[in-house]
Amino acid sequence: MIRQIRPSNLPDLRFPKKSHLFIPLFFLCFLISLPVPGLTEEGVGYHIGSGDVLEISVWKEESLSREVIVPPDLTIAFPLIGEIEVKAMTVSDLRREVTRRLNDFIPDATVTVMLRQINSLRAYVIGKVNKPGQFPIDLDTTIMQLLAMAGGLNPFAATGKIYILRHQEGKLTKIPFDYREVEKGKNLAQNIKLRRGDVIIVP
User: Fold this and answer.
1) Domains defined for the chain, CATH in brackets
2) Phi and psi of 8, rounded to 5°?
3) What is the DSSP letter of 96?
4) What are phi and psi of 149, to 5 degrees?
5) pTM for this model (two decimals)
6) Cα-based distances in Å from 122 to 20, 38, 70, 133
7) What is the pLDDT of residues 31-76, one digit of tens each?
8) Residue 172 contacts residue 165 (beta carbons within 8 Å)
9) Tens-place pLDDT, residues 146-200
10) What is the distance of C-alpha 17 from the center of its chain?
11) Angstrom distance (rounded) from CA 162 to CA 183
């Protein structure tokens, strides 16, 4: 089943009518110029994904320190404790799990887990854009920013019928997006932040 949801409870922001003609270009330039913040584990709840690079170290146990690339099955291996499924885990979760399992071998071990490289945060754009494909995103990337990465819409795009497919809670959700409204500074609440695996479809 595909169900539709619309962002709500957010104000409808509008620009003054006299600046209407300048809004599209200004708005796109503003989006592209936004700084891209670094992704940090602590505090944002980022979940480890396939292809991410982790560094796991144990204080005073250099032989246990290593760099790990998370495989597609989201199961990593570590000396002494064997395999760990990292699905739905944050870096903090993994640190606690490694510490717990190591306790039988190294009591009160000081474990550090660092996220060295994020390769699993990707979203996709297909349809009538100039450069369809998959793109790396961060936790703050919005729909308009990803469409800018895809080179913008081509002249044949149905700007009022764009939608995003998102897997959440075991279901495929269809989220409508009206490019024309956002370009004019209207209903900006629909310019939501993207998640891992989102697909933007431009008919």
Assistant:
1) 2-36+121-202 (3.10.560.10), 53-117 (3.30.1950.10)
2) -140, 180
3) H
4) -60, -35
5) 0.66
6) 33, 15, 15, 10
7) 333 333 334 334 347 899 999 999 999 999 999 999 999 999 999 9
8) yes
9) 999 999 999 999 999 999 999 988 899 999 999 999 999 999 999 999 999 999 9
10) 34
11) 13
